[in-house]
Amino acid sequence: MTPRKIAIVGAECVGKTSLCVALAEGIPATWIAEVVREFCVARGRTPRQDEQHGILEAQVAREADAVRRAATAGHAWVLCDSAPILTALYSRHYFDDDSLVAPARIHHRSYAATLLLMPDLPWVADGILRDGPTVRRAVHDALSGLLDDSGIEVHPIAGSGEARRQGALAVLRTICNNPSQR
Q: What are the residue boundaries of the structural domains of the chain, listed by start?
């Protein structure tokens, strides 16, 4: 059985990583970290425009590797902490560059589901990646529009902690029809 990929997307500081970890431990599933976060931590800065394409490609490659690892581990799911469509959106937002939108849209067809995390958690600044609650709201709105314009069905996930995890599990059970889900 080929593991199914789930895109867990949202603006910054909406709990993508926390949800991925909680789901991966409970299902179990393989989860992959967001490439851009590691990029920023390693370099001590945010990406330049000329680095955006490489980040998108690295996220795609990381997903392919995770699918192989999940199959070996017997996991039915790969939880993707963010997705290339968010890299494309940030390239548009910060650099007025739409060149990554088309390949990101094409890649997004490879996901079994897209969970869109709502910006309803308290704002927590943690350095390089955090622009602030106003930018988070603008990015959320732009992401929602891009997903809608791309014809991508999204499943909004709101609330915090266990409520958020249960909401995500309910979506996975419903749309992916996996009776082994807990």
A: 4-176
